[in-house]
Amino acid sequence: MFSYRHAFHAGNHADVLKHTCLIALMKYLTQKDTALTVIDTHAGAGLYRLDGDYTETSGEASEGIFKLLTAAKTAQTQPPKPAAAGKKADAAAPAPAASAYPWAPALQDYLDVLRKLNPHFAQTGDPAHLKIYPGSPFIEQQFLSGRDKLKLFELHPTDFKSLTGNIEQLGVGRQVAVAREDGFEGLKTFLPPPARRAMVLCDPSYEMKTDYLRVSACMADSVKRFATGTYAVWYPIIPRPEAHDLPRKLKTLAVKAGRSWLHATLTVKSSKLITDSEGEVIRPGLPASGMFIINPPHTLKADLNAALPQMVALLGQDRNAGFTLEHGG
Ligand code: SAM
Predict the structure, then answer these.
(1) How far does residue 252's CA lie from ligand 1's centre (Å)?
(2) Which residues are catalytic?
(3) What is the pLDDT of residues 116-143, one digit of tens each?
(4) Ligand 1 neighbour 234 (Cβ under 6 A)
């Protein structure tokens, strides 16, 4: 346990999917006058340097946020033929030029969040000036108003320390609470929330196989405690039975509870092992991930229907790239 550090993965393609969804959720849910409680069960460090040792070592942002920006910037003027849901992308399709790129509104909102943290990038639009990447706590906090609350859980001692320091710098006092506790357990204490409006992000590292079971049990328990909350779960799509079972379990529990649901996946490449020129077998890295949302806002499907084809066109690495978008209830 605890070998996972999100700093290695910050800004990768999974973050692009997760954070675009999170922003769309936060934007919609903070429009109402009633207070919202946001609970982030696995918060991470809150902020990451894209030019820091971790991100530079893993280079995952180069297949995520940097690829998204540079592919849009260098691409030609013809918009790529968007992949239909469930279909593979046309990997050879060119994307339009960055300045004129017709970003889907949800991706525009995602880039706006990055611009707020990176004034130089906001001015120039140059991906080289994107130095700081926000984790989910900073994204969530940006959308809160005075009446809303944010509860963050993070178990890793170093990430907890960084998160506490990063949140302190915001100077938002008691609006944001950080706890070094198990997020699956801690969530229970906040459901139902005082004003009966809540958004939960459950984004474990899945370092341990048991995380998959804990997520489905935690969501079943949460929906029982507070049926009308919005619950967003991120999961990796990897060749492992637990990873395939998780969205199925979440769908069953939403249907049984009579709640609406939305399931989006983004695949950027094949999951097959590759062999390099010296015969060395190389793991391809995370090929795909998904977001499962219980009680999504009615606007989310349209938001993602426009954003996912662009993610595929800009982030797709081979002919396996594609997306799916299903909903029910
Ligand atoms: N949500 C973050 C974001 O989007 O920026 C990334 C979170 S990262 C995928 C998962 C985090 O959960 C890691 O920082 C890990 O240390 C932490 N963690 C692992 N098990 C935990 C648990 N049971 N409760 C709370 N945090 C945990």
Answers:
(1) 25
(2) 203
(3) 999 999 999 999 999 999 999 999 999 9
(4) no
Residue in 92, 26, 98, 113 with CA at minimum distance from that of residue 68: 98
Ligand 1 binding pocket mutation candidate from 2, 6, 184 (most atoms within 8 A of CB): 6
Neighbour-count burial of 36, counting CB atoms closer than 10 A to its CB (0-12 exposed, 13-18 middle, 19+ buried): buried
Q: What is the topology classification, in CATH, of domain 6-74+96-262+291-306?
A: Rossmann fold (3.40.50)
Look at residue 23 and give its three-state secondary structure. helix
Backbone phi, psi, residue 234, to 5°? -100, 145
Q: Delimit the domains of the chain by residue range.
A: 6-74+96-262+291-306
Answer positive or negative: Cα dihedral of 20, 170, 50, 69.
positive
Q: How many residues in total does the chain contain? A: 329
Q: How many Å apart are CA 75 and CA 96, to the nearest integer?
A: 5
Please write the tens of the pLDDT for every residue from 166-224: 999 999 999 999 999 999 999 999 999 999 999 999 999 999 999 999 999 999 999 99
